[in-house]
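Review form for a predicted model. The reviewer records the input and the model, then writes brief findings.
Reviewer: anonymous (R2)
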Amino acid sequence: MAENRMPDDSALGDDHEAQPAPEHSRRSATRILLALAAVVPLALAAGAVATAPSEEIPVVQRATAESEPGASTRWCQGPLQLPEQLLDSGADTELAATPPSTEISLRTTSVEPASSVLFGTVSGSATQQEDDGSVRAPSITARSIDGTDLTDQPVSQDIGVSVQDLQATDGPLHVSSATSEGGRPVTDSLQSTITTSGDYRSLAVTRCAEPATEARFLGMSTATGDSSVLVLRNPTERAATASVQLWTEDGPAAMEGRSQVVVAPGAEERVLLESVAAGQAAVGVDVSVLGSPLVMHVQTTELEGLTPGGAEILSPLPAAATELQMPGVDVAGTPPTLVLANPQGADTTATVEVLGPEGAVQTAAREEIEIPAGTVLRTPLEGLPDGTYSVSVRAADPITAVTRSVRTGADLPGDTIGAPVDFTLVAPAPALSSHGMSSLPIQAGGGELTLVGTADSAITVVPIAADGSAGAPVEVAVTTGSTTTLTAAQLQVGAGVLAALSIVPEVPGAVHASWMQRTDDGAGGLLLSSLPVHADQGGGKPVVVRLGE
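Model under review:
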C-alpha cells in the first residue's frame, strides 16, 4: 500500500516559490507582541514600586496656643450713700443728720510678676528694660463712673513696681492695670473714706473688686438707728439677676418676693436690709448671680440715739470653710464680738481660740459652740487685756465668720450725746502660699500688720513706698498659734511714705495676715478699719488652647 506523505520541501526545485503564511498565524503573532509590550512596562513599574523606599504616614500636629491673662480691672465702691430717710429732718432742720464725707482716697499698687519684691528681695532689673533703658513697670489707669480717664499717672523706680495715689476724689471709680507687656500684674486697689466728726464719724477702708457671680457678707446691723444696704452694680452690657438671701439669729429671713433682683446693663440696684429683716444686731447676706457678674458690696452705719456708732463699707467674704483665721483684732477696753453664720442645712458646732503674742488666751476660748442651720450667732470674747489678737475658728462643717472690734472716742459736749464709737469687722484672711501683696490706705502711718502662724516659719516683709521704691526687707519669725505685729514705723521706707507690703513666707501656707488701720479723728479718739492681705493677686497661669477634631 502506498504511503500518504506530505511533500518534502527539500525535494522542490530552486525555482519553487515560498508560499505566504496563513492570515490567522500573522494575527496571532501580532497579539503576542502587543501583549508583551503591555506587560513589560507594568513589570518595570512593579519593580520600581518594590525597590523604592516606603514613605511614612505623616503625624498631624494639632495647633496649640496659650491664652495669657489680660489687664486687671477693679471696681471701687465710692463713698457712703445713705438712704434719704436717714437724712430727712422733717420740719426741724436742727435734728437733721450730718451726712458723711463724699470724698474718697484711692491707692493702687501694681507689680510685675518677675519683680524681686515678690520673692522677698529688693534688686533693680538689668534685663526687663525698655528701649530707652528705663525699667519696665505696670501701667495704671483710673476712670470715673462715666469712663473719663483721670490724669494722675503712676510713679515707679527700677524694681518693676508702680504706685498711683488719688486723693479727695468724688464718686466711685474703676482702675485698670497691666504689665509692661499687656498681661495681668500682681495688683491691689484700696479706697478709703473718712469722716472725722458728725453723726457718721468713721473710717472705712475697702478693697476694690472684680465682678463676681457669688458674694457673702456678715456682721451688719439692722437694729434701731442702724442701716445696712446691699449694693449691686452691673458694669457689663448684659442684664443679670441676683438671688438674695438674708440670715438672722432666728434663721433664714422671709424674703417675701424680694429674693430676685434684676440689674440692667450699666445700672445699680440697692436692697435696704432693714426692710427685709429689721431689728437684728447682726445679719448675713448671700448673693448668687445668674447672667453677667456683678460688683457687690454692703455699706452699714450705726447710730444710737444721737451718738455716732461708726460705719463700714464691706467687701465680699471668702467662701465658707471649716478653718478660719482672723488676725488683727483690736481690743481697747471693749471685748470684741465674734459673729458666726451657718449657711448649711444642718446644725454644726465650732471651737474658738484667741491667739496673742504668747499663744492662746485660755480665758477667751470657746468650746463646741452650737450653730443651728441657717442662723447667725454672736458671742463676746471676754477676758482679753488691751492689745492685738487673732481669732481662730474650727468648725465641723463650713461656716463664715467675722470679728467685730470697737474703739470709743472722747466724750462729746452736751448731756444727750455719749462718747462716739467706731467699729470694724475683721474678716478671715487666706493662707499665703507663695506671697501676698497688699496696698495700704493713704493714712497708713497709724496702721499695723498682724501675722498669725499655723506653722513655724520665717517671714520676709518688703515695704514699698509711694514713689515705687522699696525699703530693706524685714525678717520676722512666726510660731504656730501665736500673733505677731509690725507697726507702720517698723516698716518705713527711709523718708518715703509707706504705700504697700509684699509678704513672703518661707513655709508656704504657714501664715495669714491682715492690716488694721487706726487713724486719729482730731479730737482725741481713734477710728478703725481693717482688711485681710490676699494671696497672690495676679491673673493666674496661662490657659492652653488646643485645636480638637
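Findings: Residues 5 and 234 are 122 Å apart (CA to CA).
Further findings: The two ends are 95 Å apart (CA to CA).
Recommendation: see findings above.
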